[in-house]
Amino acid sequence: MRTEICERLGIEFPIFAFTHCRDVAAAVSNAGGIGVLGAVGFTAEELEVELAWLDEHVHGVYGVDLVIPSKYEGQGIDGLSPQELEDKLAEAVPDGHREFAEKILADHGVPALPEGEHHNQLLGWTATTAGPQVEVILRHPKAKLVANALGTPPQDVVAQVQSSGRLIGALCGSVKHALNHKNAGLDFVVCQGTEGGGHTGEISSLVLWPQVIDAVGDLPVLAAGGIGNGRQIAAAMAMGAAGAWTGSVWLTVEEANVPPAQMQSYLAATSHDTVRSRAWTGKPARMLRNDWTEAWERTDTPDPLPMPLQMMVALNGVKRGHRYPEAAKDVNFNPVGQVVGLMRKVERSADVVGRLIEEYVEACERLNKLNGG
Amino acid sequence: MRTEICERLGIEFPIFAFTHCRDVAAAVSNAGGIGVLGAVGFTAEELEVELAWLDEHVHGVYGVDLVIPSKYEGQGIDGLSPQELEDKLAEAVPDGHREFAEKILADHGVPALPEGEHHNQLLGWTATTAGPQVEVILRHPKAKLVANALGTPPQDVVAQVQSSGRLIGALCGSVKHALNHKNAGLDFVVCQGTEGGGHTGEISSLVLWPQVIDAVGDLPVLAAGGIGNGRQIAAAMAMGAAGAWTGSVWLTVEEANVPPAQMQSYLAATSHDTVRSRAWTGKPARMLRNDWTEAWERTDTPDPLPMPLQMMVALNGVKRGHRYPEAAKDVNFNPVGQVVGLMRKVERSADVVGRLIEEYVEACERLNKLNGG
């Protein structure tokens, strides 16, 4: 199953593991795939710490996933520091949204954060805040791959990353987005079906993948959205994918820094328990349906704001969910795809990689046998 | 790609073509797959005519698809004739629904049906009306396969069909439904992902298929939802499917009795142009989004009624759409899956079968090559 992108990255299997946890990223890279660390939750300084740790623990290479949305509130405002941009955007949050968010958390008995515990509100959800992250990445030679989650990255970022000998790609949920990526000269696209976790479009993987693969010609397409076992990887590769981009499945591995109460939510969920909602980030993202998502869905409650304003409203809830996962279990932010229904037990990351390969081989053999081979 | 169910049916390829058009059904059966005629639009008398025609034109075997919903209004009302049941159900349609439907059509300039042109309203959407259809099927020896679209068929129907040497199966959109089918002793399940056309659940094919395949053990699973090319069939077979159940792709074949204006709607649509809506049948079904579906989605308009009441309201629109497809092009009932984005030209049915096989073989070869074969 070694494809050209494996050669370019120097990895054994085209298994890309998106995760917010450096331990998982390292484990996958060291098992022959490649861990891709989600950077959006980190300041540039924090990201530096994470990547330094990865440099030390990864034998080969790893990747970093940024979020520079192609459309967001505050876009085109130049010359402001991240804090100044945050202050400016905060003015655009209408009255009532923060109060509503606070009420949902209070109604569920989720304690407030300890007094004095400050957190920035904007995170890496803009070009202004993601820019310094790119500079951090370029200082880490094992950070060999950069992916952008929500659109074609700005041309200067593409040039910076590529001229440093790294590969840069981006996620897409439509043929149009994929062609934008190709025209911007990206090295690969990650094509994600609607069943995927986090930000996701409306077209299913089975229908989207072949369309994107045909549309972008020889640009490698990594198949994303719904992949949790090796049979699905065989399916993706049979359709012409250059690899498998996985995410949800790494939320229930032993190494994941997911609190037990939240991990339990994932393990207990079926594929019917997810919803595509704007209730956390402001753009449609798939997550477990719960009292938070339902509250923002109702017609008699505030509508979610555009990115990044909604996350500025919701981030306090994310942080309180991290700190008090038991209390927050019905209002937590649990991004995950429909494949959650296949996630039934906690495994070691390396074992997941091994299982994916094994299932892939079995699926190929099944097909060969069927064809009289 | 010959699987056990091919042997049992005596067909060459496990390609199942659901269609409302006998010409398409015959062409697919004669090309080595099996055409499955949708019976819901026909009275028992009309179905008799269709199957007699098929007997004459099909060399091998064909199938028939019924709609006996496992839940519907009027369920359990016994001892009424179809007309009596229809009259009784008509009383349950609230004031305003028929007027609203009529207004949508009138606003778009869709002419009324010629005066005196009567049509029954209930069709085959109940056990009462589908029962006589089963009797018709049993009189036609080449009608070797029966599938039920909306739930496990009643036990007496299962017994009748199986004791006559035919196979009976049913569609499912969840593991739970699949297990109900298995427990009822059905011969196969058709497992349809949310991207499929017509009545469909919420879980994508890629995620649903492997779960159902694992859940039902050795019961053959036909993969449905999103299949329009042979690469997707290879994907399904790699995941363990026993065959491919297709539908949408037969709407734009040369033999389809789809009016040119409607066929043009399908050919022009992208995968983004479908919606899962209750606006025609009362149960969620995927179709092209248009002014009709939007009208019923709005919060200031009547909500769609449960099955079969909504179709009793909407059927006049279906009939007028058939008769005046040009006028009705923005309010027509256009059931189709997301695979519509792959349907770009009119092909002959036999050529579609040939193309599916060819693409399947190519996909298998791609996989073999990747694996060093």
From TrEMBL, chains A, B:
The keyword Transmembrane does not apply. Keywords: Flavoprotein, FMN, Monooxygenase, Oxidoreductase. Gene3D superfamilies: Aldolase class I. The keyword Coiled coil does not apply. GO terms for molecular function: monooxygenase activity. It comes from the Bacteria. This is Nitronate monooxygenase family protein. It comes from Nocardia callitridis.
